[in-house]
Specification:
Keywords: Cell cycle, Cell division, Chaperone, Cytoplasm, Isomerase, Rotamase. With 450 residues, this protein is of the alpha+beta class. It has 13 helices and eleven strands.
């Protein structure tokens, strides 16, 4: 076998490989000889089929298998001999000329093919003890706990039927039909929907226009959907709703005491407050974790600038770009609605794809050098947690992951990333910075982009 390097630019390598016909023929003959004792053909006793006859019957298929195996072994030898670390699977170009293909299959011509390789870069890791990151910390105040409990209480407040018109704080059961430019729209109708006037849970202006309505009365409510409305096809647009009141209830008295706590399964109001405080602390800690992780990843990106495999970037970009287009289509929006052009958006998302690939390689390198691994038990627990998010479908979810290696890898990857982040935070110089709740949850433009 003759191997000639034809390209060595950056992370790309290419080779021309020539495998003599005699070598292929010898391998095919060995395979046919092995088949002699295994195949059964009419007219021949087991193990007595002449190799020449086997070659006439199976020769072409056996040679095809030999060629496939030879190419795989040759590529593996190229990688091993040169100490390459591949970013992607080798890209092989076999002969396309029919006469040449026929000659190779029939053992009359040498096999000549080319293989292109894209390599992983050599990464020089920095000194992680020099990393400086701030950890935002929010103290949970008694007022925040009381406010949360008040919302819980309000959601569990008893209501009773009342006579007369609806007032602020009342719960009104309504049917409604929404129209836009005189036409009904998807999601614009509902029956027996309960609206608490003043709860600000509906489109701005909707609840206020129900004040004074009586049971059996129908009135037209006109509103405009918020600019940031989730259904982008409706965002910022005016709509009219024909609303009929079917029932009106007044809120009952609610005392925040031990008895109220017991209705929620807690032994006392103090215990309820303790649990609420723990939940708020956990939520704040989750947000703080994402903030410090973003800071850490920014620092890693800045400290590790190197060429990344173009093929990996293209794969990442393709996935991101397809999702972008699907989201825009689902929201009935264009790039112009996002104050950009398709070319500008593509350029921006390519930068994001390149950053993702670079950080992925850095994190993988850190994990490999420090023997950071995710056990099968950890993956299994994560899949079980995902399955629990689909009550009644747990077995189907479990089977999906168990039978789909890519899906299982999608579970393992974030677990690995979090372990590497934990490892880095143990080495880095982490200082705590007290911030307000508003500062913690403030999301700047860079974070949105990331």
């Amino acid at each position: 076998m003759q191997v000639t390097e034809t390209q060595a630019e950056g992370l790309k390598r290419a080779f021309r490989v020539v495998v003599p016909a005699t070598e292929l023929d010898a391998k095919a003959a060995a395979r046919l000889s092995d088949l002699k004792d295994k195949v059964k053909l009419n007219g021949f006793r087991p193990g007595k089929v002449p190799v020449a006859h086997l070659k006439r019957v199976y020769g072409r298929s056996v040679m095809a298998e030999v060629i496939e195996q030879t190419v795989t072994e040759a590529n593996g030898k190229i990688v091993e001999d040169n100490g390459f670390r591949l970013a992607l699977q080798p890209k092989v170009a076999l002969p396309e000329d029919q006469d040449e293909v026929k000659g190779v299959i029939e053992g009359e011509k040498d096999l000549t093919y080319t293989v292109e390789l894209e390599l992983l870069p050599k990464i020089e890791l920095g000194n992680f003890k020099e990393l400086k990151v701030e950890k935002p910390v929010v103290e949970v105040s008694d007022a925040e706990v009381d406010e949360t409990i008040a919302r819980i209480a309000d959601a569990n407040r008893p209501y009773s039927a009342k006579a007369g018109a609806a007032a602020k704080g009342d719960r009104v059961s309504v049917d409604f039909v929404g129209t836009m430019d005189g036409e009904k729209f998807e999601g614009g109708s509902g029956e027996d929907v309960q609206v608490v006037i003043g709860s600000n849970s509906f489109i701005p202006g909707f609840e206020e226009q129900l004040e004074g309505i009586n049971v059996g009365e129908t009135r037209t409510v006109t509103v405009s959907f918020p600019e940031a409305y989730a259904a982008r096809a409706l965002a910022g647009k005016p709509a009219s709703f024909e609303v009929t009141a079917k029932g009106i209830e007044a809120p009952g008295e609610l005392v925040l005491d031990d008895e109220f706590a017991k209705t929620l399964g807690q032994e006392s109001l103090a215990k309820l407050k303790e649990l609420v405080r723990q939940r708020i602390e956990s939520e704040h800690a989750g947000v703080a974790r994402q903030k410090i992780k973003r800071t850490l990843l920014d620092a890693l990106d800045a400290a590790h600038q190197f060429d990344v495999p173009a093929g990996l970037v293209e794969q990442e970009f393709t996935g991101v770009w397809e999702q972008v287009k699907q989201d825009l289509a689902a929201q009935n929006r264009t790039f112009a609605d996002e104050d950009t052009t398709e070319d500008e958006a593509q350029a921006e998302y390519r930068k994001i794809a390149e950053r993702r690939v670079r950080l992925g390689l850095v994190l993988a390198e850190i994990g490999e050098r420090n023997n950071i691994q995710v056990s099968d038990d950890e993956v299994t627990r994560a899949v079980v947690e995902r399955a629990r998010q689909f009550p009644g479908q747990e077995q189907q979810v479990w089977d999906y992951y168990r039978r789909n290696p890519q899906a299982m890898a999608s579970v393992r990857a974030p677990l690995f990333e979090e372990k590497v982040v934990d490892f880095l935070l143990e080495l880095a110089d982490v200082t705590e910075k007290k911030v307000t709740k508003e500062e913690l949850y403030k999301e700047d433009e860079d974070e949105k982009a990331a």
